Amino acid sequence: MSASLCTPATFAPVLSGAAILNLSTNLVTGVNSTVSSTFNYNHPTIKVTNATYCNVTVTYTHSGANDTINVETWLPMNDTYNGRLQATGGGGWVAGRFFLSYQTMTAAIGQGYAAVTTDAGLGSATEPTSWGLESPGNPNLNLLQDLASVSLADEAVIAKSLIQSFYGTGPAHSYWSGCSQGGRQGLMLAQRYPDIYDGIVASSPAINWAQFIPALYYSQLMMNLMGQYPKGCELDAIGNAAIAACDGLDGVVDGLISDMDACSFDAFSTVGTVVQNCSQTGTDIPISATAATVANLTWTGARSANGSFLWYGKSFGADLSGSATGQGDAATVCSQNGTCVGNDADANPLLAIDWAKFFIQADANFNMDNITHEQFDSIFQSSVQRYNDIIGTADANLTAFKAAGGKMLTYHGLNDQVIAPKGTEDYYNAVTAAVPDVQSFYRFYQVPGLQHCSGGNGGQPTAIFDAMVAWVENGTVPETLPISFTGNNGTAVNRKLCSYPLKPKYDGMGDSNSADSFVCS
Ligand SMILES: *[C@@H]1O[C@H](CO)[C@@H](O)[C@H](O)[C@H]1NC(C)=O
Ligand SMILES: *[C@@H]1O[C@H](CO)[C@@H](O)[C@H](O)[C@H]1NC(C)=O
Ligand SMILES: *[C@@H]1O[C@H](CO)[C@@H](O)[C@H](O)[C@H]1NC(C)=O
Ligand SMILES: *[C@@H]1O[C@H](CO)[C@@H](O)[C@H](O)[C@H]1NC(C)=O
Ligand SMILES: *[C@@H]1O[C@H](CO)[C@@H](O)[C@H](O)[C@H]1NC(C)=O
Ligand SMILES: *[C@@H]1O[C@H](CO)[C@@H](O)[C@H](O)[C@H]1NC(C)=O
Ligand SMILES: *[C@@H]1O[C@H](CO)[C@@H](O)[C@H](O)[C@H]1NC(C)=O
Ligand SMILES: *[C@@H]1O[C@H](CO)[C@@H](O)[C@H](O)[C@H]1NC(C)=O
Ligand SMILES: *[C@@H]1O[C@H](CO)[C@@H](O)[C@H](O)[C@H]1NC(C)=O
Ligand SMILES: *[C@@H]1O[C@H](CO)[C@@H](O)[C@H](O)[C@H]1NC(C)=O
Ligand SMILES: *[C@@H]1O[C@H](CO)[C@@H](O)[C@H](O)[C@H]1NC(C)=O
Ligand SMILES: *[C@@H]1O[C@H](CO)[C@@H](O)[C@H](O)[C@H]1NC(C)=O
Q1: Which of 45, 294, 328, 453 has the fewest CB atoms inside 10 Å of its own CB, making it the most exposed?
Q2: CA of 2 to the centre of ligand 5 (A)
């Protein structure tokens, strides 16, 4: 029984430049769980029955860096082990070792993978208050670099060493699976550590961090400068009108915009249209010019005081108010009397505020409520100047990754309310320009209707990880990915995602609920 090997004496990981502080093990038995695809990005729902694994947690520090990092590796018993390593990424400010990584790891164990996650030295914090400043006035650059890149290489070295010790041989194949922060981590691995993983699934990636994070405050800035704040119901109604206007462009009316680039919609055309039973007031209200202005500028994206481009906006169909997701660039809170103010507590502006506080101003008490447009521009510029190389993760030169035989897949929801999908599209285009024959090792899929990683009306790419394994191990090229969802009328709808730059288009004849009726063109 490999269970008897689940003791600290079995393992002796060595990490260059680091000191191992502790290694603990415990045998976990009888794990039964149904891991829902909603919390298992890149994978379908997985039923785990009576799984047993050895939990090995390695604690280490980089000499002189004042960090303490925990890498947690789960090793299934050798009769269920499938010979593969699956590393799982984080989300938001979290590198791993949180609810979502444990969901994915549980599913991975159930399928026979060895699984690993790291906290990058950030402990269990979900935002940077506890670690963002090394001391007042000094951003914690060591921990930011641990999150951005350094912990990712360490994690893989440790996991591969533990696997070697436990099973007597290293993993036959190694994979990364992540979304959002986890998607960014995957891209960083391909960019800086091209030899580690055979396959990387890097979804809805938080790349272009130095730009997109401060840009999450742009709508709040503009509302503050105008001193006017729309009600969430108005923004929701404007978004729904945009979807209705562009829904049919792919040849089928299904509540989804599949061809975002073909969509143009004038928010100002909705002004005066009545929203019935507005959820903020409980009354019928006309859409205001303020709401149209805010929708328009949130779609347009961050611009400097002199009007120059800073970053992309959200697409038509994205949740701008945060009503549906709690992540809305233009989120407001309204009083009984119908007066609204900006909602700094919404997750999107909060990301930007925390970033500016700890990493730009280095002042835990910094308040953005009254900043000028010029101050916003300077925060944005400082972010790019100081942090693009650390955590921007947009290096398009994947030559070494390709040469190492690596494969990568990325999806991005077209209705992503947190990370503008145009940033990922830009990155893929840049890789296409930088490395010959991009499709031979890296593919990208835009997902109609999908919100950030999961959610929305158009389904989730649950087959992408298994498609990666088949590509790496069998050479099966994922020209398309299947996706399915329940239509508005309760019907099962099957569609396909196309490898960018192709887009799915209805053939005009077949059953619009069948993937066969769509072509990639
Ligand atoms: C999990 O299910 C198995 C039966 O398949 C059972 O023997 C085991 O006790 C269950 N584990 C727990 C923790 O309940
Ligand atoms: C569950 O796994 C344990 C080993 O951990 C084994 O002894 C037991 O027979 C299994 N139970 C079932 C129902 O398969
Ligand atoms: C694995 O070990 C670590 C360190 O002891 C512990 O914090 C964690 O809860 C353990 N996980 C499981 C599932 O046993
Ligand atoms: C190390 O970090 C801790 C916080 O994690 C801090 O309290 C301590 O002052 C730091 N030590 C040094 C030497 O910087
Ligand atoms: C599991 O490992 C043990 C040694 O620890 C070995 O005797 C056994 O054959 C292995 N089983 C499998 C299925 O590899
Ligand atoms: C149900 O909805 C789907 C997708 O929204 C559509 O393709 C189909 O035609 C609808 N079926 C009926 C019976 O309305
Ligand atoms: C208005 O919406 C609320 C829920 O937001 C609901 O409880 C109420 O019944 C609705 N009123 C009307 C007149 O539709
Ligand atoms: C915003 O409004 C301006 C002026 O009407 C228009 O030119 C622009 O296309 C709009 N932007 C979006 C994203 O709709
Ligand atoms: C509405 O209520 C808010 C909070 O109670 C208050 O600050 C504001 O002055 C009120 N506005 C009007 C127009 O009554
Ligand atoms: C922002 O300005 C308003 C109005 O001048 C003022 O009431 C508020 O205290 C200011 N907030 C901060 C954080 O400075
Ligand atoms: C791209 O990366 C390769 C391999 O790491 C390197 O040889 C090459 O110089 C890089 N190209 C550019 C334009 O930096
Ligand atoms: C590879 O192809 C074989 C034969 O078709 C199949 O049995 C196996 O499941 C495939 N493996 C993967 C990882 O897709």
Answers
A1: 45
A2: 6
